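Tip: read the tokens left to right.
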């Protein structure tokens, strides 16, 4: 069955992707299933996280939560075949759009030389009357700009001193969870891996409070709804920009 207009199959002509997000767990609410499919198919995917998510558990002091969530993210990444996980160490909940953030992201892009950059929704809303948090909005805009920074020899010239040559090979940036999706990945057969990846965030999920629904209950409905639009059982949606 063909995809509905406005929701196309995700581009396939690439081998390296870098996922750049604000927090541990950002990728696990859907995108992880697609990442499992890609790594199983021989593609390389690495993770860069702006923060350690230390402000994300109400009942746990940040000094404890940071290392805990870092460890959970590394375990979560391993479930979907990712063994490169880097943390920039910026303060959780207080990301600001500035040149330092753009420089750090441009450095990561030059270091890993991806053809695709993945991130999470940077729009004001998740859809309807909801409000997206500041870290996601700030990080997403910085990612878009850092991709161009990474390609420009005359921006952040100090990166050249670190041996990081310009990289202009990134042609796609894709945001999961966007209220304005344009593309989707068929993850039929990989959804369980994505769910298992989210389940690694035990402390975080426990911190959401008793009675919180399971990881499967959180991830599955969206995968089914997107799958119906793509004409498959399960799929993950992305808002894709071609650069």
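Filled-in amino acids:
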């Amino acid at each position: 069955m063909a995809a509905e207009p406005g929701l196309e199959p995700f581009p396939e002509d690439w081998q390296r992707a870098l996922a750049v997000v604000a927090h541990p767990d950002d990728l696990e609410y859907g995108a992880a299933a697609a990442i499992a499919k890609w790594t199983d198919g021989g593609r390389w995917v690495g993770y860069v996280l702006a923060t350690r998510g230390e402000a994300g558990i109400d009942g746990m002091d940040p000094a404890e939560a940071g290392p805990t969530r870092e460890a959970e993210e590394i375990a979560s990444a391993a479930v979907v075949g990712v063994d490169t996980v880097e943390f920039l160490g910026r303060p959780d909940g207080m990301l600001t759009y500035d040149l330092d953030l753009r420089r750090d992201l441009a450095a990561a892009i030059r270091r890993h030389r991806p053809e695709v950059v993945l991130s999470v929704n940077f729009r004001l809303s998740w859809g309807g009357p909801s409000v997206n948090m500041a870290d996601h909005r700030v990080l997403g805009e910085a990612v878009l700009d850092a991709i161009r920074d990474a390609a420009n020899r005359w921006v952040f010239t100090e990166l050249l001193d670190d041996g990081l040559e310009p990289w202009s090979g990134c042609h796609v940036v894709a945001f999961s969870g966007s209220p304005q999706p344009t593309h989707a990945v068929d993850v039929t057969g990989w959804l369980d891996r994505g769910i298992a990846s989210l389940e690694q965030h035990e402390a975080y999920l426990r911190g959401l409070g008793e009675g919180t629904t399971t990881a499967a209950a959180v991830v599955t409905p969206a995968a089914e709804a997107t799958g119906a639009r793509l004409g498959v059982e399960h799929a993950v949606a992305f808002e894709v920009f071609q650069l």
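The first strand starts at residue 8 and ends at 9. The longest helix spans residues 62-79.
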